């Protein structure tokens, strides 16, 4: 998944693009570049392998300035990350530059056709074929819009493109094909912007238009025109983004992930705001319209998601079955559509996705739509595909999540799932007045409980100092905390590159206990709940085999310290909300281990914030 920024206005495009790319670096950071229409009419291109800072240094050494430009930060799919394969790509005539996100599935056939006509290519990328096609149509007298239309009519796959041309210096063209990650048009005064994600242009405008599949935006200084690819006008529907620029900045924290971990008392409060009605003792969900009859008619809910969001879905099964008494299945977005799922209009398919652009989750949503299920989403990014195509949605209201490792979106998802459970429980008549009020009242203390976990000493830096050189970790949880063990393991492996596995504690005796030795720390979630005694016995089994145990316990538990090597504590929390609190020590442990190992916490190798390619 790559980052795209475009600008057309009266200011110098270069600093605006570079700052925007820095805000998008979490989307991919193998290489970066920009193309600017210069005063002499030529297109100036600067590109560099590596992170944005390398490109900034290159531009400082060899400035390029103008009031129209496009930029790109790349997560390599076709062609190794190097300057030659970095975007933007310029056509052979130097007339057109393009930046691209997605995969042109038929690029080899297109490239062979063009090479047979004598075209020579400068890169290994799929992207370059498009700019050769567009230049060809331009040379034949087509307008920039028509040249782009004709070129893209030959392209297969989910893609997003932004073009500029020295022959048409008064516009940039943005096109979205399928689910290749969003394209947002920012509306300014005498200037307009294009970006693959809101934070890139939030400093300049909060009025955004989101392109949908097979739509083209013609962006000029004076305004923006949106059309379908076959030329039909599309009315502009600007959204005003409630996020402020500060929320997309990192300071005063060292990493975005660190900031987003410590923001969770506030983000949980934001997620609750306007939904949990503590006066009336009930829940309101503005994005979900359901009558009691429709709620009672539902036979089951299927949750589809990927990665951390899938683990939130596993917690969601506990929440929705407990609160709404409705059967719940959970499936990976990348698996769902390949199992020919049995769905009907009595099934609700609930997609959980922070970015709203994860291609596997979107594909699962399309499968659900195709089979007639009711389609809901829990999503963070406003205007994203998953936000717009669902029949009903619950926004996370977590604010922009920049760190590649998801933290506050996970806890926001859990709160949304709890709210959904209460909402459905009341509609289905399974949560009575008093029971419902008690469930809603439990939410009132949640931000305070989260805040208490975040007020810790140096226990995490101490643990990181002891265990930073280990090669394997095992995370054990049971019941509603088993998904928390999975999430803890994922956090650790994706930012510290230590191999980690989350496991249902009861399964240890069926094989994995053979792994236990003094080299592999075991993180055991053993808070005071209905499976506490089982977890204590699990800890004893690990210790009996020489293992080292880091236990997560409830404050005041004096017994567990006699068994475990290290104890992290959380405050007593209502069982259905415990995962919101219990995951935070998992996040902090992973963060401090990664920092102690000198890893790039916000931009881990090989990863991207939103996976918009299959
Ligand atoms: C989580 O830390 C990872 N970055 C990854 O697993 C992520 O949760 C997954 O790609 C799903 O993203 P989404 O929530 O935006 O759909």
Query: Ligands in the structure?
Result: 2-deoxy-2-amino glucitol-6-phosphate
Number of helical elements? 19
Strand content: 15-25%
Helix-residue proportion: 25-40%
Keywords:
614 residues; alpha/beta; eight-stranded antiparallel sheet; seven-stranded antiparallel sheet; 22% strand; globular; binds 2-deoxy-2-amino glucitol-6-phosphate
Kindly describe this structure.
Helix content is 34%, strand content 22%. The protein contains 19 helices and 27 strands. The strands form five sheets. It has an eight-stranded antiparallel β-sheet with strand order 3-2-4-1-10-9-11-15, with helices on one face. It has a seven-stranded antiparallel β-sheet with strand order 5-6-7-8-12-13-14, covered by helices on one side. Strands 19-18-20-21-22 form a five-stranded parallel β-sheet, sandwiched between helices. Helix 7 (264-272) runs parallel beside helix 13 and helix 15 (446-454) runs parallel beside helix 19. The longest helix is centred in the C-terminal third of the chain and has 20 residues, at 408-427. It starts with a strand and ends in an 18-residue tail after the last helix. The structure holds 2-deoxy-2-amino glucitol-6-phosphate. 2-deoxy-2-amino glucitol-6-phosphate binds at residues 306-309, 353-355, 358, 361, 404-406, 494, 610-611.
Short description:
The protein has 614 residues and is of the alpha/beta class.
Please render the helix and strand layout as text.
Blueprint: E1 3-8, H1 13-23, E2 31-37, E3 43-49, H2 52-61, E4 68-74, E5 89-90, E6 96-102, H3 107-116, H4 128-139, H5 144-152, E7 159-165, E8 172-177, E9 184-187, E10 192-195, E11 207-210, E12 215-219, E13 224-228, E14 233-234, E15 239-240, H6 256-262, H7 264-272, E16 276-277, E17 282-283, H8 292-297, E18 300-305, H9 307-324, E19 328-332, H10 333-336, E20 347-353, H11 359-370, E21 374-379, H12 385-389, E22 392-395, H13 408-427, H14 433-444, H15 446-454, H16 459-467, E23 472-477, H17 482-496, E24 499-504, E25 521-525, H18 532-544, E26 548-554, E27 566-570, H19 578-596
Parallel strand pairs: 18-19, 18-20, 20-21, 21-22, 23-24, 23-25, 25-26, 26-27
Antiparallel strand pairs: 1-4, 1-10, 2-3, 2-4, 5-6, 6-7, 7-8, 8-12, 9-10, 9-11, 11-15, 12-13, 13-14, 16-17
Bound molecules: 2-deoxy-2-amino glucitol-6-phosphate (AGP).
